[in-house]
Amino acid sequence: MSNKYVVIDLETTGNAPRKGDKMIQFAAVVIEDGKITDQYSSLVQPNQSIPPFIEELTGLTDDMVKNAPSFAEIAPKILTMLEGAYFVAHNVLFDLSFLQEELIEVGYNGFFGPILDTVELARILLPSEDSYKLSDLAIQQGLNHDRPHQADSDAYVTAELLLILERKLKQLPMQTLKQLHKLSGGLKSDLDIYLEELVQWKESKIDFIPAELEVYQGIALRKGQDEDKKPAFDGQMEFPDDSGKKEALFRKAFPHFEVREGQFLMMDSVYEAFNEPKHALIEAGTGVGKSLAYLIPSMMYAVKNNETIVISTYTTQLQDQLLHKDLPLLKKMLPFSVEAVVLKGRSHYISLQKFAQSLNDMDENYDTNLTKMQILIWLTETETGDMDELNLSSGGLIYWNHIKNDETVFLQNKSWISRDFYYKARTLAQKAHLIITNHSMLLTDLVHDHSILPSYSHVIVDEGHHFVKAAGPHFGRSLDYLNVRLLLSQIGGVEHRQLLYKLEKVLEEKGDINQHSLIHSFEMNELMTEMLFEMDEFFRLIGQVAKKQKKGKSGGNRLKVGFYSNESNEENKVLQGKAERFYFLTADAMKALEARLNYIHDNINSLENHEKAFLEELATVVGDLKKVAATVKELFITTSDEHVTWIEIDLRAMQNVTTVYCEPINVSNVLNARFFQQKSSVVLASATMTVKDSFSYILKEIGLEEADCKLIKIESPFDYEKQVKLIIPEDLPDIKAVSMEEYVASISEQIISIAESTKGRMLILFTSYEMLRQTHQLIKESGFLDDFAIFAQGISGGSRSRLTRNFQRFEKAILLGTSSFWEGVDIPGEDLSCLIIVRLPFSPPDEPMTEAKAKKIKEAGGNPFSEFSLPEAVIRFKQGFGRLIRTKSDKGLIIVFDRRIVTTSYGKAFLQSVPSVKAERKTINETLDLIDEWL
């Protein structure tokens, strides 16, 4: 293969050439015979001013392009370079369409050769990357990208990326290349032309399959890797019982290890809890190093006693850290073989049988075909088959639902069992010393009829402050409009040509269905049509009830209100009637579909493979429909006073997307009975469990008595008095004394002044999205911070991790966050120097769960504020407080705008629960002076 590629990048005044936006820089890099052979770049005179945002993004100014050539002057050179070449760009349709407009405007026909898009190629060939932005890919691939958003630098890095991707393509087995070619016809770029050439080139050579791969039943898979095993535990090594022995252990993995007594204390506490055995709650401050502090004693106890210990986390982020960072360190430290495995719910794993069948299905959907191509590449790399490794689009996630691993009824081909990822994970888990899972899986195992996890009696629950929150949904129910609608549309009516249509076609071929007590196709179709109509009416009425209850109350784009079915009013009666109608229709449809499936299953030997595949999908859908019916019944027909039900609506969505939730008001009794009483030793670990040095609140929430547990509080090794200044502004109004608009105006002024003084590097935590939105709007409208990069959750777009990465990229950056940003955000070093907490994080009193818990506490003669609202807010405050100092060298300011922290009696609870730092009350001018001095 000796293709010529011209990799192009443009900088422009905007995104719309037809609205007058112009090119300000052009760059091209030529690749021939697998090498970069030529480069060309030029500034371009746009004959208009460069907008401030573009100037900030690119570094290109009006002065720099003032004497640059016009596009007409460089156009001939560009067209000469492009002769006989592939046009390549990162997001090719933008660069190509912009260039075409410019060429046509100066009298040329444009470019009509083949095109390649490195975004599309990277999505296919690097299916596990977090981001497909050029700068992110450059970092991941080890490329030097010193001037992002300047065309010459972007074009060169894109060219280097293309060469990496091409090398990867050429190394793929012929089988995979042919499958990719078959799927590539509907892509945005001309990858099909390129792959056809590549297949022809590969056919002229001897195709060697790499040693780590195998082709099994037509699909290239990565072989399971046998690790170099250390000897098994010989019973000689004892748990290190003094600091010297512990230090020697750590030095095997950390040559420059610094002793942390808190880490050693936690190791001892975990080992003692397992041996006694007893439950334990351990609060370990930031920087203690809690992961290794529980992994080492867990591993030693497990191998010595030949037991399995489960490690449960709340976030996949911590799971990944344990797997990829902490376990390799553990293996260095211990002289014997460390057997550890990650185990997730079955639907996390791919069904190779379903995927292989789906490759035969012709599909015109872009996302489906791209996802199939991603998975073909991923299967040559993955050892787990876990979908969390993949970066899938929303359309890709829909396709995943067709190929995820679950119980099968019609597809019973046992030939894939030897390669089945879920089966392999379960088998490894049976032999492992440590099983890493998440709270969701752990709790699913508690409520599941058949145990998923192997038998275990000792468990570490990391991020333990989330255990109650995670438990609620598992002992409750939820009903989501989009999910139910998607489920019913998968079945469809006969005219929709979905699963019901395919089902009736198979039945036609099997003979007269009337002889087998099955309802007529016409009746079946009528039933599905009526059920879909009633479902829409049911959810429409739910929305009306919620909106009526919320009328007159302020709020953002999400509406969240309690639903009290035991209240006797006209709306509830009508809604209950609608619920019953939808429930009985669903039950009838389920019964009719199950009868049809049972009839066909009796004739399974006469079915084709593609028929078995869609019937398998239908059987799964019918199982999901059964859950929908049970949920409707529980939420609206047979309700319980021990549960709280609420409705959430996204008001921005076209049909006001609605979800109904139902959870136990209190999960403590069920957790105690089903979990703590069943296990010998449960260790809950977290950085935030105590309120004013007491574990009382968390003990009550999880259903344990103090006498049943070891309670250990380990302080952070950081010197907060030297690393942190805590400021309470004196010249802000009391948040309770003014309107939200007035409060937002006041804090916006202070944020602007503080940002100018700190040069950004600021994280601002809100408790309300509406307040965040208004503050962001005022700051932007003021124009004072136009030279800052300002990122806001729910406004700037992207996930929490993406917003955090973008924030860290810019020197003068401000990040506004709510909800999830109060914890799990790790921004060490100088990237974050100032943390602002806008208001104390109390849950709104009309929040349904808060309201229900308060009512229960009141009925029992307690005080809802001191027993629930205050401790919950304190723990959340501690999580927010912990965002600033992540290492021993960090230094910064925490500014709490909410003066209630020093003006109310309960404010002391917040200050007494965080590391000891003197709270200083200052005016804005005094604060700015301190910032200049401190930072």
From TrEMBL:
| Helicase ATP-binding domain boundaries | 249-520, 271-510
Enzyme class name? hydrolase
The record ties this protein, via InterPro entries, to: ATP-dep_Helicase_C (IPR006555), DinG (IPR006310), DinG/Rad3-like (IPR045028), DnaQ (IPR006054), Helic_SF1/SF2_ATP-bd_DinG/Rad3 (IPR014013), Helicase_ATP-bd (IPR014001), P-loop_NTPase (IPR027417), Ribonucl_H (IPR013520)
**Swiss-Prot/TrEMBL keywords:** ATP-binding, Exonuclease, Helicase, Hydrolase, Nuclease, Nucleotide-binding
Q: Any idea which GO molecular function terms this record carries? A: DNA helicase activity; hydrolase activity
PANTHER family with a match to the protein in the record: DNA REPAIR DEAD HELICASE RAD3/XP-D SUBFAMILY MEMBER (PTHR11472), REGULATOR OF TELOMERE ELONGATION HELICASE 1 (PTHR11472:SF34)
Q: Which family does it belong to?
A: Belongs to the helicase family. DinG subfamily. Type 2 sub-subfamily.
Record's protein name? 3'-5' exonuclease DinG
